[in-house]
């Protein structure tokens, strides 16, 4: 008896995951422009993320400082059901160019679901994008409310959430066969080298390095080591650049004033509570610009 081929046969599915504000959208957008590739487009959901188009699993439900703690956020091969692969394909396929060879799906919570997705699509490729936990937490502030980090309050909670999610991922990564970890810091510093490895890993045509708009996290470095020096000058600059978004300028001014008072305490708390665990995941709590190469076995929480 012949078995009908699955509709995704003949394609290479590429799943991208990582914490919010870690560079997952950047990587997905770059891959979406490669000849023969297609990302989800014109979906009408936030950031064109596949998690919002399906009802098979729970996406990043909850606040930015807690979604990975939910039991349903971590899925493995044991959670796969017989029809899940087809149901997900039916939810995503209308938004891909199905003439493309490489079909890209990006959702941050893929970080803790790679074993599950591998069970559903055994020939898929997986890319995890990591970014320094302090930089990621500071970047989240632009979205956050008062309790989740807008003015420094909640930053240890955001960093702890990053650590938990990446420890779950580090353990799972030992079971994921086709996995590439992209350090955001390396992508910014050596885009040609990193994108070359991505192309080789996926089997795509070469990806030009100028696809990356290289920038550094200098503003986050300044905030992390905040002092009162220059506060008024920087605050005035925010107001001058306010344009049509005065509320955003007011938030930035409030952060400039609050950071020197709040962040030293939170720097000490984060260092005391998480520095060792962050180091096992390849980052230095005080060096926001670099990362160690990913090494799964060295990074497992059991090591």
Automatic annotation (TrEMBL):
Keywords: Transferase
Pfam family for this entry, one: Sulfotransfer_3
Gene3D superfamilies tied to this protein: P-loop containing nucleotide triphosphate hydrolases (3.40.50.300)
Transmembrane segments: none
Name assigned to this protein: Sulfotransferase
UniProt organism field: Myceligenerans pegani
């Amino acid at each position: 008896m012949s078995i009908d081929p699955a509709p995704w046969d003949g394609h290479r599915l590429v799943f991208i995951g990582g914490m919010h504000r870690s560079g997952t959208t950047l990587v997905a957008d770059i891959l979406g422009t490669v000849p023969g590739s297609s990302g989800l487009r014109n979906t009408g959901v936030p950031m064109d993320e596949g998690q919002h188009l399906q009802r098979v699993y729970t996406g990043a439900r909850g606040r930015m400082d807690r979604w990975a703690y939910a039991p349903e956020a971590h899925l493995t091969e044991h959670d796969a059901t017989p029809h899940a692969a087809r149901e997900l394909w039916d939810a995503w396929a209308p938004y891909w160019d199905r003439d493309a060879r490489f079909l890209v799906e990006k959702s941050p919570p893929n970080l803790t679901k790679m074993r599950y997705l591998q069970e559903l699509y055994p020939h898929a490729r997986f890319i995890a994008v990591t970014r320094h936990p302090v930089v990621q937490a500071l970047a989240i502030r632009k979205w956050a409310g008062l309790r989740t980090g807008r003015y420094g309050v909640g930053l240890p909670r955001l960093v702890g959430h990053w650590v938990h999610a990446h420890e779950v991922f580090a353990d799972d990564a030992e079971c994921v066969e086709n996995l590439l970890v992209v350090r955001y810091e390396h992508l910014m510093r050596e885009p040609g080298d990193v994108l070359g490895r991505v192309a080789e890993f996926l089997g795509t045509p070469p990806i030009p390095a100028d696809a990356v708009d290289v920038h550094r996290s200098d503003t986050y470095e300044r905030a992390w080591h905040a002092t009162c020096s220059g506060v008024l000058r920087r605050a005035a600059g925010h107001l001058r650049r306010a344009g049509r978004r005065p509320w955003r300028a007011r938030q930035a001014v409030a952060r400039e004033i609050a950071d020197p008072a709040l962040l030293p305490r939170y720097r000490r708390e984060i260092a005391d509570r998480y520095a060792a665990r962050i180091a096992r995941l390849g980052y230095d709590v005080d060096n926001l610009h670099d990362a160690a190469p990913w090494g799964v076995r060295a990074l497992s929480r059991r090591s």
